Structure formats: structure tokens, C-alpha cells
């Protein structure tokens, strides 16, 4: 990853609502004594904007993925464990907001205006695409947000509705595409896009494809709207397919952030003080303890659709532990390979949480893996392996495999593909484009076309995964001894797509969306899809309300109809922009602004705010 050389210049609109200081900066090399918007070249801002935009998305991706059925945490494991059994709270909602507004967005308008003034259409076009990408994140999470009033400079800007935000994002991404398409080259004397761009390394054609892809992704969210023109906020299948035709056509077109296991001098300045080089999912998951796969994930990658064929991605997604001295029951169904054993998935619809499990396994040279509990029912929790991994650069360890006890080979855990220190971040992929196309074609009755796109998406997901697996093994040949790291043989890919995903005759919407979910693990699109189709268990195989939901009184208050459809607004908006936040409630579909007696209430403070749909998740025009 390129070294970030840019500064934080806060003070626009919602950014002013944050409690984070705006007087720090990253590696400034222009007017270092008095950094200002006027003195900072626009090309220095882009890497900084990309870093905070990507991190804000990644943190939202991780937190919403805990709501979406594939991951949980050990019993009593805090906020994200609560999310995994569907107990929403305000605890996880601030960071994506803050990293977008304070870290990224406050720099975007200035970069755009300066680039326009310099006739550097590439930086200007990218600014509009990123502005749309970050703003849509806010709309997807919170529903409503200040946007059009931000340029006024008010510390308490008024809110836009979800529809206004959605249409503004479409307009901005179209503006960005036009700037790039109309100016494929720029004057060689101007700063090259490659100077600041680490998402696409200055490749204008990839940015254009990204723009069309994002437009297609967002238009596909409108499946609850009436058919018609997308410009009116309606479901427009023709435009979705047209955009996909101009988006990525192979994995070579993907927008992927390649993270590295370095502890560079440049760290973030929003309070975490972590290297900008490494994967943000490592920060929120991989370096932490207790995260475990669920049975929903395990079943879908070991026997997808009941076809009896294991997905070769199963070994890469489900964590492994070395089998030092573990005692297991054949009935546990553990997979063993080369001294390693693969985790089982926690059955969230069973009584395991109500019984106080799962507990984290401990390790000692004398006992190997064991459960430190006097509860005999919990001693078998050694079958669950955590997602924890390690870092050579940041932590100075000998391997990215985690050692529960340093120096002991029997104390190793593999981690999972997307949450290691140098795991890639998938911003936009050909695989996802294929699944969107498959969904649209399926709903049009074109089963063969849908199956072809669906099959291409599964294959693309595996082939893109292999790129990072091969790199890891090249970087450290010792990783080849762990099945979590070995590249997937081409024969295994072909076998699975030919025998493990069905055919054109039996394809269903569930096949398409579940394979999309597997390919997009740790993506906000998982939750978006589940909302779009109302958490339908016939579409989302193995999904069900977690059993422990019934044991926590807060769950019934916050999700009385068991439909988790938005995040609550973060404390900065509630504390410092409450008047405007309350005012927008009159335009929010399903918001409760009066009580049963007709008395006014603060809609966003209601216990069941989490069930109020955002605009695209409703049938509101």
C-alpha cells in the first residue's frame, strides 16, 4: 500500500459534530507548520480519503456481518456477541459514521473543487464516486443523514430523507463516471491519479467500471419499489443490466485493496493509532479473541443446497486449530488434516447460548486444548476454533498463524481468509456483479442466463481467493502445511461448480443469494440482501432467529417483530443535532412520532427504532 501523505482538515457540516480532534495530520510535507485547506495539494488528499472511506466501510461490514448469521462470539462476548443473537444496541454505531465524516468526507469537497479548478478531471471524477460510496453507506446504515445542507457550514445541518440521499448518490456517481469517460487522459503536467490512488492504482478504466458497478448494486436494492425509471426511485431492471455491461467483466477489473503486514510509520489519527497498511477487518476481528463460525456458515459451505459436495472455500473460511492432545467424539464430525482440525459451527438456533456456551478454549503444554470450566456440558466446546490470527510486522511474530502459547506448535490457530493482517478488502468484484446479474435474470424468468451468471460468480469468487492464498504461501512456505492457506486446485473448483451448486433447472433465488453471501462474507451487502428479502429462511438457507433472542428481554423490546432493519443514529447526531434529527421523522417510512394517545414522541429514541425500515427497504415512493 502506498504511504499516505495527507492531512485531516475537519469542519464541514456533520464532521463538526464529532468529538474527535481535527488538529492532527498524517505525514504532511506541504507547509507543515500551518497545514490548511488552502495549502494542501488535492493529490495528497486522495490516499487519506481512500483509507478512511475503506476503513469506515470495513467496520460497518464486520458489525453487520455479525447480524447476518455466519459469525458469533463466545458466550458473554460483548457487543458483537449481542448482535449475533439479534440484540441491537447503540454500541457499534459510531465508528463507521466518524471514520467517514471526520476521516474521509471532510477532505472530499476540497479535493473535488481544487481538481476541477486545475482541470484534473481524474481526481474530480474519483471524488464524486467516493462521495457517493461513502454517503450511500450512511443511507444503508442509518436511513437519513445530513447531506445537501452540509456545504452551508452549519454545525447542525438539516437532514435529507433516505430517498434524497439515494438519488443524490446516483447523481454523484454518474457525474464521476462522466468526468472520467469524457477525459480518458489529462495533461501530463498535472498530478497523475496513480500518485494518490491505492484502490485502483490510477487505472481510470477501473474507476469507470467501479462507478457502473456501484450504480448497478444500488439500483438492485430497489426490488421493493414499483417497476419504472430509476431516476424516480423505481426498480429498473433494464438499467441494472446496462450498468453491469459496463462494470467489471472479469477478476482483472476488480477493485481490491491489497493490504500488507507492515508496521509503517503512518498510523491512523482517529484514536486507534494503527498502521494504515493492514487489513481493517484484522483490527476489528482478526487480532481479537472469541469470534467463531456458526452452523449456518458451516452447513452452507459443506453441503450447499443439499448437493453433498463440500465447497473448497470451506477450509479457507472456517478456522483451524492444531490438534495437540485434543480428545474428540467421532459424533462431533470434525474434519482433520495434516495434524489440524477444522472448527465446527455454533448452532445459534440451539440452546447453547442459554446453557452458557460456547466458551473459549484454553491451551497448556500439559493439557493441550481444554475448557477451563467446572460445567461438564461445556467441556466439549473445544470443537469451536476462534478466528484469531497474528502479525509479523505489527506484532513482530514469526508467523501470521496465531500461537495461543508462544513457542508451542500445538497451540496454533489459523485464522480465517478475510480477517488476517494482510487479507484483501473487496470493494467491488466481478463475482458480485455476476450474482446481481443472476438475480435480475432469474426474476425475469431467464433461468439459463441466471444460472450461467451464478456459476460464473461462484468460479470467480474461488479464483480471486486463490490469488491471496498463493501469495501467502509464496511469502511463507511454512503456511503450506496448514489447510487454511493452501491454494484451491483447479480440479476442485471445477468439481464444485459442476456438482455442488445445482443446475439451470433447479436454480432458485436462494441459490443465487446464498452463494453471493458466501462470496461476500463480511460485507454490508449480506444484511442489505436479507433486508431486501425480509429475512426469508427459504432464501437464506439455515437462517433463523437465534434461540438466545428469547432469553434477553431487550430483544423483545427492540425487535418485537424480529426484523432488524436499521441502526440507531449515533450519539453525536442525537446529542448535537437532535432538533433536525427529530424533524425528519415525519418523512421516515414507519417512524413512530406519536404514541397511542396522540402525544408527540421522539421517534429515534423509541425502543423499536431498529425495526423502522430505511427508504429503499420500504414500499414508500
Offer a few descriptive terms.
mainly alpha; two-stranded antiparallel sheet; 621 residues; three-stranded antiparallel β-sheet
Assign an overall shape: globular
Helical fraction equals 25-40%
- Report the structural category: mainly alpha
Largest sheet geometry: 3 strands, antiparallel
Distance between the termini: 43 Å
Report the portion of residues in β strands. 5-15%
Number of strands: 15
| Helical segment count | 19
Walk me through the structure.
- By secondary structure, this protein is mainly alpha-helical.
- The protein has helices at residues 45-65, 79-84, 94-104, 108-117, 121-142, 162-182, 204-220, 237-246, 280-286, 295-302, 314-317, 430-443, 447-475, 490-499, 509-519, 524-532, 553-558, 571-576, 578-583; strands at 6-7, 25-26, 71-73, 145-146, 159-160, 255-257, 291-293, 320-322, 335-337, 340-342, 362-364, 368-370, 402-403, 412-413, 425-428.
- The strands form seven sheets. A three-stranded antiparallel sheet has the order 8-10-9, with no helix packed on it. Strands 1-2 form a two-stranded antiparallel ribbon. The chain has a two-stranded antiparallel ribbon with strand order 3-7.
- α1 packs parallel to α5 (121-142) and α1 (45-65) packs across α16.
- The longest helix is centred in the last third of the chain and has 29 residues, at 447-475.
Question: What's this, in brief?
Answer:
The protein has 621 residues and is mainly α.
Helices and strands, with pairings:
Elements: E1 6-7, E2 25-26, H1 45-65, E3 71-73, H2 79-84, H3 94-104, H4 108-117, H5 121-142, E4 145-146, E5 159-160, H6 162-182, H7 204-220, H8 237-246, E6 255-257, H9 280-286, E7 291-293, H10 295-302, H11 314-317, E8 320-322, E9 335-337, E10 340-342, E11 362-364, E12 368-370, E13 402-403, E14 412-413, E15 425-428, H12 430-443, H13 447-475, H14 490-499, H15 509-519, H16 524-532, H17 553-558, H18 571-576, H19 578-583
Antiparallel strand pairs: 1-2, 3-7, 4-5, 6-15, 8-10, 9-10, 11-12, 13-14
Amino acid at each position: 500500500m502506498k504511504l499516505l501523505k495527507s492531512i485531516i482538515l475537519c469542519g464541514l457540516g456533520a464532521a463538526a459534530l464529532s468529538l474527535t480532534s481535527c488538529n492532527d495530520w498524517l505525514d504532511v510535507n506541504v507547509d507543515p507548520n500551518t497545514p490548511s485547506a488552502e495549502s494542501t495539494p488535492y493529490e495528497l488528499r486522495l490516499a487519506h480519503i481512500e483509507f478512511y472511506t475503506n476503513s469506515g466501510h470495513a467496520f460497518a461490514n464486520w458489525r453487520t456481518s455479525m447480524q447476518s448469521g455466519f459469525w458469533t462470539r463466545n458466550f458473554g462476548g460483548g457487543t458483537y456477541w449481542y448482535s449475533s443473537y439479534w440484540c441491537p444496541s447503540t454500541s457499534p454505531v459510531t465508528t463507521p459514521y466518524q471514520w467517514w465524516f471526520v476521516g474521509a468526507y471532510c477532505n472530499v469537497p476540497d479535493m473535488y473543487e481544487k481538481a476541477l479548478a486545475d482541470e484534473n478531471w481524474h481526481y474530480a471524477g474519483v471524488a464524486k464516486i467516493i462521495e457517493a460510496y461513502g454517503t450511500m453507506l450512511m443511507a444503508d446504515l442509518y436511513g437519513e443523514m445530513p447531506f445537501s445542507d452540509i456545504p452551508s457550514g452549519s454545525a447542525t445541518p438539516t437532514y435529507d430523507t433516505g430517498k434524497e440521499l439515494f438519488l443524490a448518490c446516483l447523481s454523484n456517481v454518474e457525474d464521476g463516471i462522466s468526468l472520467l469517460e469524457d477525459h480518458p487522459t489529462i495533461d501530463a503536467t498535472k498530478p497523475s491519479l496513480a500518485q494518490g490512488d491505492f484502490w485502483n492504482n490510477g487505472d481510470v478504466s477501473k474507476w469507470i467500471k467501479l462507478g457502473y458497478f456501484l450504480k448497478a448494486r444500488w439500483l438492485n436494492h430497489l426490488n421493493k419499489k414499483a417497476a419504472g425509471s430509476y431516476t424516480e426511485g423505481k426498480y429498473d431492471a433494464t438499467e441494472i443490466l446496462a450498468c453491469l455491461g459496463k462494470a467489471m467483466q472479469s477478476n482483472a477489473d476488480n477493485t481490491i485493496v491489497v493490504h500488507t503486514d507492515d508496521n509503517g510509520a503512518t498510523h491512523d489519527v482517529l484514536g486507534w493509532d494503527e498502521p494504515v497498511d493492514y487489513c481493517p477487518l484484522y483490527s476489528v476481528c482478526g487480532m481479537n479473541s472469541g469470534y467463531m463460525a456458526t452452523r449456518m456458515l458451516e452447513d452452507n459451505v459443506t453441503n450447499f443446497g443439499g448437493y453433498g459436495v463440500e465447497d473448497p472455500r470451506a477450509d479457507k473460511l472456517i478456522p483451524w486449530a492444531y490438534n495437540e492432545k485434543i480428545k474428540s467424539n467421532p459424533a462431533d464430525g470434525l474434519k482433520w488434516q495434516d495434524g489440524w482440525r477444522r472448527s465446527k459451527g455454533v448452532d445459534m438456533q440451539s440452546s447453547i447460548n442459554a446453557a452458557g456456551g460456547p466458551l473459549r478454549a484454553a491451551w497448556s503444554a500439559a493439557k493441550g486444548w481444554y475448557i477451563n470450566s467446572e460445567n461438564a456440558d461445556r467441556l466439549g466446546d473445544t470443537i469451536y476454533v476462534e478466528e484469531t490470527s497474528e502479525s509479523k510486522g505489527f506484532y513482530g511474530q514469526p508467523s501470521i498463524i496465531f500461537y495461543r502459547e508462544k513457542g508451542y506448535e500445538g497451540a496454533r490457530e489459523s485464522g480465517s481468509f478475510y480477517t488476517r493482517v494482510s487479507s484483501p478488502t473487496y470493494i467491488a468484484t466481478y463475482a458480485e456483479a455476476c450474482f446481481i446479474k443472476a438475480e435480475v435474470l432469474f426474476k425475469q424468468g431467464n433461468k439459463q442466463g441466471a444460472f450461467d451468471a451464478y456459476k460464473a460468480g461462484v468460479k470467480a469468487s474461488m479464483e480471486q481467493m486463490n490469488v491471496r492464498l498463493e501469495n501467502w504461501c509464496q511469502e511463507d512456505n511454512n503456511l503450506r502445511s496448514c489447510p487454511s492457506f493452501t491454494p484451491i486446485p483447479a480440479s476442485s473448483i471445477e468439481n464444485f461448480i459442476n456438482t455442488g451448486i445445482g443446475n439451470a433447472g433447479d436454480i432458485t433465488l436462494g441459490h443465487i443469494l446464498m452463494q453471493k453471501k458466501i462470496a461476500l462474507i463480511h460485507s454490508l451487502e449480506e444484511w442489505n440482501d436479507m433486508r431486501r428479502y425480509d429475512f426469508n429462511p427459504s432464501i437464506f438457507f439455515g437462517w433463523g432467529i437465534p434461540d438466545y433472542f428469547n432469553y434477553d428481554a431487550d430483544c423483545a423490546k427492540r425487535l418485537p417483530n424480529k426484523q432488524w432493519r436499521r441502526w440507531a443514529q449515533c450519539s453525536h447526531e442525537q446529542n448535537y443535532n437532535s432538533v433536525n434529527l427529530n424533524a425528519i421523522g415525519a418523512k421516515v417510512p414507519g417512524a413512530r412520532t406519536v404514541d397511542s394517545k396522540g402525544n408527540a414522541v421522539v421517534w429515534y429514541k423509541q425502543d423499536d427504532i431498529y425495526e423502522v425500515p430505511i427508504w429503499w427497504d420500504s414500499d414508500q415512493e
